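re: ur question from earlier - yeah i can do the single chain one, its not a big deal. heres the input i used so u can compare w yours
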Amino acid sequence: MPGVRHPADGMDPCRKKGVAMSNSMPMGTRVKLSAMMFLQFMILPVWFIPMFPYITKMAPEGSILPLLCGMIMGFGALASPIFGMFADRLMNSEKVLALCNFVTAALLAYAYTVKTPGALFVTLLLVMVFYMPTWSLTATIAMGSSTTEAFPQIRVFGTLGWVASAIFSIVGTKVFGIAQFDGTPHIFAAGAIAAVMAGVLAFFLPPTEPPAKGEKMSLVDTLGLRALVLLKRPDFLVFSVLILLAMVPFQWYNVYNSTYLSERGYEYLTGVMNLGQVLELVFMLMIPVILKKAGYKWGMVLGLLALAFRYVMFYLGASYGLRICDYSGILIHGLIFGMLVVGSQMYVDAAAPSDLRGQAQGFIGLIMFSLGTFLSNFVFDGILKKNVITEGPNIGKHVWTTPYLIALVFALVLAVLMAVAFKPAVREKTNG
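and the output i got, formated as tokens:
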């Protein structure tokens, strides 16, 4: 099929000229790529996680602004294929990354000054339009300058950056001379600073040239939709459908679990949720080993089974008030994220031809972080609304056992479908 690589050209960790194995990567390159991940994944939690108290205070009573702001990540991810097109055909990926980060910084700096709810929503929506594509761009840059096998070792620094973002809350109170950092506009200033740092670093990254530069472009190329040709391949089509459906129970945890923990009486919700990111550091380093032994198919089945285990734990926690079960469901996050999200990025890098890798990463980013988020909100928001307690001392709270049981069954069915229907048409990992 024109434009699509033969399966034998798929997963070869040594396919990049001059790179034999992950440990042969020059140390300078490894440091730069690791710093890129650290800063890039620090930008978002600096302002997005503590944003909602500020949005709630600004919005008039009964406003849908908090709900809309909670969806901006999904809207922003819609732009990922377009920026992937720029990286494939027009500009070096690291230059596109720098552009996105500087525009993100400028918009966040402007958000710091905005005083009206509507203007703030539009500004933050534009922030996500330029920020969300950077997740796919960093994957393209990292895997273009190393081996696919080395990617999790580099990506783990993104998790470190996410956890380290809490430092801004501590430093921010001192720099701005304020008693409270979260829930104030200062979070946007901190996000702008992090974005500028990431933008400057991009100029020092290994050059990742557009593989299809100079080729004739169509409207499909302009919209970043050329990667849709990959859906003609049965393996990529099945993978795309299943990973989209997997995002329904996966994203539900990200969107609603803080509400569950709050109703269970937990304090310091960000810290409790970040326990999953802490253990993610360990799981991320295990990904190459797991995929080397099991392959993409069974690695993703493992991720879905871990997702099912999470909801078993939350079901038991909600049923019997067992905090050990709640913590178990949180701590398994790293294995779920690693197998489903990072594993998907690695599979796409293996499955896509070189001139489509940027757009392909953008496409899978759109599926996971945009369409998947919207679908998750649509499905589980309706389920939650039907499980609100309407009388007694807990009025207004939710019955969580039913939603968690549905999520559990959903994940198990997807694990079976992944095992039966997904047949990767790429070579699995070798020792190089």
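The chain has a mean pLDDT of 81. not sure if urs matches, ping me
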